Amino acid sequence: PAMRAFAAVDLGASGGRVMRGLVGAGDLRVQEVHRFPNRPVPVRGTLYWDILGLYREVLAGLRATGPVASIGIDSWAVDYGLLDADGELLGNPVHYRDARTDKVSREVVERIGAEVLYERNGLQFLPFNTIFQLAADTRLAPAATVLLIPDLLSYWLTGELGAEYTNASTTGLLDVRTRRWSASLRQAVGLPASLLPPLRAPGEPAGEWEGVPVTAVGSHDTASAVVAVPADGDAFAYISCGTWSLVGVELPEPVLTAGSRAANFTNEGGVDGTIRFLRNVMGLWPVQECVREWDVPLDGLLAEAARLPRRTVLDVDDPVFLPPGNMPERIARWCRAAGEPVPRTPAETVRSILDGLAVAHRKAIEQAQALSGRAVDVVHMVGGGSRNELLCRLTADECGLPVVAGPAEATTIGNVLVQARAAGDLHGSLADLRALVRRSQPLRRYEPR
Ligand code: LFR
């Protein structure tokens, strides 16, 4: 039987893509149709996403994709656009790395109480969680609706309003037990109920664009990536590795213990009612920022870094590395303050970040197991970072566990799988979808040394 095509729109912090996914009996292929950079714009002290530019590229990509059975959209989490009562966008969405939430986030936590907050929304503290951004937002008065980025693009395509559940689970405004909007959290930051659109689950219809159905997918990119983890059984940890490393396990129920809160583990909503119990590790962001500053290709640096011994292990999760700009300098400053040797070359700098990441990966995987009681015997690295051989090898060695790397296209594959199942082209549970990923995608195994 012929394979049917699905369009997956995937926006990441550094770039976006429109991909064509082909799904047929026992086979799955994804092809890149259109790729474009995502360059945030600083304007008078605020860092914005260029959302109209991104939408233009999404449209160009969809037109170039050819006939598809449906369209699915995912992106990074937490950020949003505000619409007025006529559905007009009120200003540009602000980037989660903007400093506007630095103070407000702590004030909101103090006001609600860290325990109460965690008990209700189950989220790790990140200064940019939507609840804090909305508390800091000065444009709320004329706003009628808040839409997360994929929901905003979906609205522009279809004219239909909705809040996809997996991404809504990153806002801090969802009740982690009932999986509905939490009235008490909403009220705690003074938001009217009408601001939050009705929830929709991955797989539900989300309108039409030029006669083509748009389907809600795991619109949080990490939720889609976890769908495509090629695991067999449930004794696995995953690292969805790109700008961030999202490190954790998949659980049927949230873990809301004091230990889990202290370790800053999050309980995000996954596809098919799963919980993504994970920690945000800084990821390849510091490398991306250094490379942006040095303006040299990464491949050569990685080859050189692979020949170096471990010298400095950067604490990549230090919040000083969160904002953009001056990354090499901030790394040097961190080393001096920590009494660690300052990297002397770009390759040494890259190596110190990757060694730091490998250690952070191990700690998060150990904690995930200890806090959840779920033991793992393999680590799946998916996403663009799974192409980074040095990072995979360092992670396997550090964890003392085999690392299975790939697919690098996990996010778009997860996006396509959920659409294809909703369309009736695929059937079964996450385990069945993962079996298809295992059969169809090239994977690479790193044994620990
Ligand atoms: C990864 C990701 C993370 C989220 C961060 C900010 O792309 O979606 O899961 O914590 O971006 O939105």
What does this structure look like?
37% of the residues lie in helices and 21% in strands. With 449 residues, it is of the alpha+beta class. It contains 16 helices and 19 strands. The protein has helices spanning 51-65, 102-112, 114-121, 130-136, 149-158, 165-168, 183-188, 221-227, 258-262, 285-294, 298-306, 327-338, 346-372, 389-399, 410-422, 430-440; strands spanning 4-11, 15-24, 27-37, 41-43, 46-48, 71-75, 80-83, 145-148, 163-164, 199-200, 205-209, 212-215, 236-241, 245-251, 266-269, 275-281, 378-382, 403-405, 444-446. The strands form six sheets. It has a seven-stranded mixed beta sheet with strand order 15-16-14-13-17-18-19, sandwiched between helices. Helix 13 crosses helix 14 (389-399). Bound molecules: beta-L-fructofuranose. Residues 12, 76-78, 96, 220-222, 243-244, 246, 280 line the site of beta-L-fructofuranose.
